Structures are given as structure tokens and as C-alpha cells.
């Protein structure tokens, strides 16, 4: 019987998360097939190390609840990409408004201090906002992608 997934890995150390996610995405997209990552349940409740930011774009429009839960779990601030106002409820405790001209005035500084940046449902950000030494996680499909 042929294996269902072309790549499968167990995440044993939270520090390897970005590397394994990137490897799984490369294999999946390159071979146009399924990959699998096994993540221990306690990793989802462990606090994130360092400063974590989420940049949310139009692709998160139908996933605001999930995005807020992720930000709460990670202790991450959420910045909204330009023109995507309304993606999150204005009362969200993790929302830091938008980035760029007319956005949150301290967004650039906060974003540049981040150790990890999750790009969720977006592929663009204003020039000079992304930290040069942060790990960038790109969610290639929007969070609202139908299953």
C-alpha cells in the first residue's frame, strides 16, 4: 500500500517548528501532494518565546475567531494589512490596528522587534516593516480556505 503523505515528521522541539513547517510546505507544494506534521498537544498551550507578531490580510476574513485564539495562545499582537479593516473585531485585545500610512503609529517599531512573524492570508507588507532577523512564517493558503 502506498503511503498517504509524501512527507511526515514529528515535532519534538518547539524551536524546530518553523523549519519543519517550511520543509513540509516546500515538499507539499513541490510535489503537489499531502504532507503530515505530528505536533504534541502541549505545544499549543505553551507560551511563545520572544516577541511574536501576526500580520493578517484579506485571506483571514472568515477566520477571525481562529486568528484571535492563535494570537491569545501565542501572546501575539495582530497587525492588519492595508485596506483590510474589519478583518477583526475592533474590541479584540490583540489587535494593534493597521500598518503603513494612517495605521498604528508604533506598528513599525513593534513589528521590527518581533522574533517570529506569521503572515496570515497576505503576501505583502509596507517596505521597511518586516524585521531583518525575524523568522517569517508564510501561511500560503488563506485561513478561510475551504477544507
Short note summarizing the structure:
It contains three helices and seven strands; from the N terminus they run E-H-E-E-H-E-E-H-E-E. The chain has 147 residues and is an alpha/beta fold. The chain has two domains: 7-43, no CATH class; 47-139, Rossmann fold, CATH 3.40.50.
What's the total count of β strands? 7
CATH class category name of the largest domain? Alpha Beta
β-sheet strand percentage? 15-25%
**Order of helices and strands, N to C?**
EHEEHEEHEE
CATH topology of the largest domain: Rossmann fold
Overall domain count: 2
Number of helices: 3
The name of the CATH architecture of the largest domain is: 3-Layer(aba) Sandwich
Percent of residues in helical segments?
Answer: 10-25%
- Distance separating the two termini: 25 Å
Largest sheet data: 5 strands, parallel
Average predicted local confidence, pLDDT: 76
Strand order of the largest sheet: 5-4-3-6-7
Structural class, judged by helices and strands?
alpha/beta
Net shape: elongated
Radius of gyration, taken over Cα atoms and rounded to an integer in Å: 16 Å
Helix and strand arrangement:
Layout: E1 7-10, H1 17-31, E2 35-38, E3 52-56, H2 64-74, E4 77-80, E5 95-98, H3 107-113, E6 116-120, E7 135-139
Parallel strand pairs: 1-2, 3-4, 3-6, 4-5, 6-7
What does this structure look like?
There is one protein chain. This protein has 147 residues and is α/β, with parallel strands linked by helices. It folds into 2 domains: 7-43, no CATH class; 47-139, Rossmann fold (3-Layer(aba) Sandwich), CATH 3.40.50. Helices cover 22% and strands 21% of the residues. The chain has helices at 17-31, 64-74, 107-113, and strands spanning 7-10, 35-38, 52-56, 77-80, 95-98, 116-120, 135-139. Strands 5-4-3-6-7 form a 5-stranded parallel β-sheet, with helices on both faces. Strand 1 (7-10), helix 1 (17-31) and strand 2 form a beta-alpha-beta unit. InterPro entries: DHS-like_NAD/FAD-binding_dom, POXB-like, Thiamin_PyroP_enz_cen_dom. It holds the Pfam family TPP_enzyme_M. This is Thiamine pyrophosphate enzyme central domain-containing protein.
